[in-house]
Design goal:
By secondary structure, this protein is mainly β. It has one helix spanning 10-17, and strands at 34-41, 44-49, 51-55, 61-65. The chain has a domain at 30-66. The radius of gyration is 14 Å and the shape is globular.
């Protein structure tokens, strides 16, 4: 897993969402769709979306659907 990916601890994430009402919906900006949590290492979980977002060889952002 590249070190340049932003990350936070599960505890930090829980603290951010624990004050939110349980019956509210969450949306992800830019139209991303939640896919799954993926265990990547003993203490590393990746939050995956239904789209791959990356920079091409020119540095431009690209978005591809994983379906």
């Amino acid at each position: 897993m590249p070190e340049e990916y932003p990350k936070m601890t599960v505890q930090e994430f829980k603290l951010l969402v624990e004050r939110l009402p349980s019956d509210h919906d969450l949306i992800f900006s830019n139209g991303l769709s939640f896919y799954r949590f993926k265990q990547r290492d003993e203490k590393l979980i990746q939050l995956e979306f239904g789209e791959n977002i990356y920079r091409d060889k020119n540095g431009d952002w690209c978005v591809d659907s994983i379906d």
